[in-house]
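New to this. Please check this record:
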Amino acid sequence: MKNITIIGGGVLGSQIAFQSAYCGFNVTIWLRSESSIERTKPKLENLRKSYIEAIELMDKPEGKTLNNWCRGIALKEEFNKEECLKKVEEAFQNIKLELEMKKSVEDADLVIESMSEDFNAKKELYQKMSPLLPEKTILVTNSSTMLPSRLAKYTGRPTKFLALHFANSIWKNNTAEVMKHETTENKYFDEVINFAKEINMIPLPLHKEKSGYLLNSMLIPFLFSALDLLVNEISDPVSIDTAWTLGTGAPEGPFQILDTVGLKTAYDIVQMYVKIPSFLAPYNFKGMSKLLKKYIDEGKLGKSTKEGFYKYDNKGE
């Protein structure tokens, strides 16, 4: 693989693009509109700063600890500060932002769809994109909840379609969940696993389809539990986060994680559960939906807008 196209420039889309470019791939991000381009540019600039700060820290004794070392940037035995900084600048300069779909995928070896968790939007995208893809192209979804089998028939290439899901802050949390469906050919599954290795990820193969994959099968119920405590007025975000971080030693609490993931993504996931009858629902999904919608309407989307459940400075702190 050489040419990689990312569909969508959101939190993870921009990270996947930057990491792929950092590792030497030709990267294009397809975006819907000029306004999408203007929203994506600052994300890439912030990623550039994050990589540089991480590399500077990795060059110091305190940066060589397990918690501070960024495995997506370099292995310890291969770390060269100047080389890494050069790769960051090259990645930042070489990522292409494209509005024309045909142009963005015309020579793609791999297309990574990284849109919001909206089934109909993904379906419409695939139907529009499928006749434009070259025969060679492998297509993957970065969906955090949807099974590839639900989307496969709309892709025009079900044997070359599977899921490739990343954790947030992929230059540090360098895992990639690779999940096929019944129709995926093994050779394409293997090629995607190999691609994950080439962008310094640790591939985690899933041998059966599972909604939520590995990480989100554990993470989403955890976040739902925290939101449920808030919307039912049991406690406040700071106290809930403190209970988790001090009680377990975890670096972040659930509301800090939600701000990083983005409240729009959280809202889209909650919407999948809102219609569950209340007597069957383990959580107050309607209350969560109402609360998250209020934040979104106020422009409080999380770290990307400098405010969500918390307020952040330009460094995201």
Summary: The first strand starts at residue 3 and ends at 7.
